[in-house]
């Protein structure tokens, strides 16, 4: 509300109530949605890491004009359709390693709470009834516009709000809509109908968190009208209603335009993770500060995927080294430079995350420890270091802990490496057998001293994002940034 960073002080010490506006379930979610829920998943994880007891509420809008329209197109029951897409959303969140919220209410299951709140708003003379519809009167709430900075005379009917000449003020918004033929409806004191879009979140947040709680979040597009209307109706129902902190993430853009279904410029989460690992998508999304816009491109996903591969490969190389030293007694002490590295990593990570959830800086904090780990693993000097295994073990443990806070710690790192390899091949249209044939062809060319041909094969694969690595045991491969993408990234 202040448009400034504020020190976080929860209403009840040690406990946090957080409400995040969920999806309207009429289609598969796109990566604009992914950004919202990855952002608040990171916040949820970090608050838990800070030892807060967090009640995280995230709703489903399963009753809405868009759901009804889509159900009519498909000849399906609206509640059946929305339930199906709730399940699809759960699958997407699992792919992205988003933790389940504490509570996940659906509009269809909270009609009593919604109706009770509308009654209270009417009793407080902040709404009026016309032909079975109930409208909120913005003129009765002088603070309207405080969150968005809009003046009441500048406001127009918001998204999902049809122009209606019956309204006392064009900015008035529906709390209850009277039933139309063929639409689902619920009984109410004003006749059969269903709730307007905004009232649901006020009623459900109050039901699980009370009228005053700590954090309310969502995408920046919800500031007006959705969150502005929530404030008005919540305060109209209970004068003591208050939200401690409003948090909004920036848009995902495509060619500098907001990604949205209405503009038909969106990519579903499913489409993206066909070619890129879900954790690469998550890495891409948290690689920009949550309040800044983020421009979607395959180039940026290539870069994110490559970085993730490097991190996981480093961890797997460590685990292989530990396996080789299995049974060896590890000493309790660590070299001073290792201790200093771990302490700096911990401090840098904690301070960047505490500074308005600055995930890009938090991710950058692991770069130097990863470099040191690779020196200890692969350089002659590093392999001779005293207490080398102890240093590797301590640093990897700390990095894994920090990756867990960011939601980037899979249960099996080697499995994800293999999945990253599989998707890299899918992106370039090769099977592993076809790639191995090319590697064999290059090996034969090298044996026959056809170095131009062997270089051509190597460069051709590098151009599409496959790097070959030669050793005394043969040639292996790994996915990397395609050569033209790498050149573009270096020039930026």
Automatic annotation (TrEMBL):
The keyword Transmembrane does not apply. Its cofactor is Zn(2+). It is found in: Mitochondrion; Plastid, Chloroplast. Pfam families: DALR_2, tRNA-synt_1e. Gene3D superfamilies: Cysteine-tRNA ligase, C-terminal anti-codon recognition domain, HUPs. Nuclear genome-encoded factor required for normal assembly of chloroplast polysomes. This is cysteine--tRNA ligase.
